[in-house]
């Protein structure tokens, strides 16, 4: 590398490190707001988050950033850089160009609104009062529509949003994989509904003490290999994971007294996200590559741990005894097989995050279609509760009794995250495809799980996926790990095999 | 106000609000690091705090700040501003000029040295090895001497340092009040030492369960009027209060199993700081006036609540029964009067932060006199241990057996905080003087306290002090509230009356 290139790269690294620092501060301000910040400070706090997001935005769109990314994009300069360095330049340039197109004042106003809107959503959800939230959500949607124009429409307007979470993915492709998936899942769901072999889930409807739930959750996280010296577990309304830096990756959960499985599986889920971020190569710290490859790949890891490992028979052969010890009264007369069948019970329900792994995809399809309607067909926010309820009736055969159990249930839209939901089902598909390879390369997988020996799984995933962070694209990862592009049949195969056996179809 | 002035003020307000936001973010990053951030993230976190502190400094010394404060300082412009606005301009200008006067290269060298020096101090304190720390402290002092020249000498050289923490206070004035105070306290301390009526403190040396300590602390904070919707209580090694904004003022405490009084009085102390910041007028949010008037006035509020209310007989007449209920075994045979006498036991000890409210002032006077000798009389750092020990012998009748228990005990000097110590005793004096007025204006004060009716006290303090934030100077506050300037006799009177009765002198 020529001396001038090296010197420029050092200066560029300082800028990247500053950008990372702003990201960490904003991440903590958000985390704090959701986990325990006092109510009366929330308004000023929202302003602070907005201001710092504006500063971060300013750095990402600075003339410095423009000049650096232009310089390092030159073929004679880029050829002197490593692959990782070229990926950094490429991602920064993409972000620069996308952001440059939005006037910074508009972006800052949006950020203030989004932070405030989240607080309003929390209250509205609690009171099941969509009307109080509607003006905020309408403004968020209006901002997104405005931003789509700034960013430029690729394919349809909604494609522009999809691309932010899953690069190179289109409405056309998602429509295709979702319809293939649906065509195999719908008959499966129908067969299950018709099966006389329903699991007994009655024993789940007991009071499970919060303290014991917390203890068991901490134990399971430790078993997965979650590093508590590089993270912590807290409570929030909506569980989430946030990587402030690879040495500080926090997760939250929500304890429902009458539902022990909710906190257990949300800990496994967020724990999967967190394992990913804790195990990113330290060399990537301070660069934009110190994060997951995409939302879909990130979600594949939470789903793999929550469902494919955490809802497997082998897992509970090992850990059910521990759960019984935490709840000796509640689970005294419940056999492990009955527990396994109960936690895999398929039911058409209202709440996405409590849905089983099979119907979950229908919850996603509802949201995906509604988002498409908003951005491609002009559906108004006011109409959302009605459309939401109609689609739930159509796909799941149920109508939410309140907006708190319906359109208000998710945090995503309140923060402007449209285009995100599809990632969840993409994650399921990636996860099943990765699991298929994992089984080939660790043929003893079921035995390892049944022995509580989960660390080899974490190590395999670290080697194949986690350590790379965002230095590979989602399609590079899925092809390098599994040898083929995204293929929804692995998920359908996995679900068919599991549920055919479980429901004796 | 002319339109141009109004428009400029709006732009200036945006800059001020941005500065406030950086302060809030840095405050939260610090709070988090001290209360529960995972260990492995600490190094990256420190870098993030350093980066944001640099950004904040850049804003405070920006050409924008220079131009705004110069413009608003013009008589024809200033005359159109409110009193509060003029105070904002004055404070910002002072900070700007002070920071600007130091060549940035020298300041950076100093910052590196100060950080290193703190680490060296920690090691030296642990080994009680002053010689290893001396070269670093000498360099810190040399830098401070250089900075005094940059800042400009007002009165004596040490005046320049004092002014940073307690505006308008001079060496002449502090000399006068400290020597008056000392002349009354030294004989009092001697008389107590000679008194046969020593309280029994043996029962304090028991195990007090942490959970119960926490419950009692939360109860007392609630009684004081601390607003838990605008704050929270956490644990940290060293207790502190931090006002992120007036709607988010957090406090921490530290539970010592073998010392229940430590957490109780640190909660009252930090609670006093927090009441101040929670009750600052919301109109001042986003300006540099949304903080305490000075270190001394801030300290007066922690001391008033901790000592003058919290260590009063009336307070424990009301709350001792509650404390007993929290520790029924430990305090079963201890009468309230014995408890009151034990928590007010006076002892000549080596460590400032463990000192009682009476001898505490002598610890401060030692430090004040030594700082003055350094900056006004050329006392060398090498001579410090000898001078320190001689002064402890003279005022407290004891000679530290090691420098770890003597000159090395405090962190302040290692980080360059010369001029700060005086604030602690100024706080005691302000508190006693304010208490004297409070007693006149709420003649039923003792009865209110004994009835657990503390809110009228909080309301009175809010009206007289808290709501003003930094919009008044310390001397304006003390004169407006009490009708006269700082007068050390109120503290001496208070201490003489209390301890003469307590020790039957």
UniProtKB/TrEMBL annotation, chains A, B:
It is an enzyme of class 3 (hydrolase). Its EC number is 3.4.17.19. Zn(2+) binds at residues 269, 273, 299. Belongs to the peptidase M32 family. Pfam families: Peptidase_M32. It comes from Paenibacillus albidus. The active site is at residue 270. This is Metal-dependent carboxypeptidase. GO terms for molecular function: metallocarboxypeptidase activity; zinc ion binding. InterPro entries: Peptidase_M32_Taq. Its cofactor is Zn(2+).
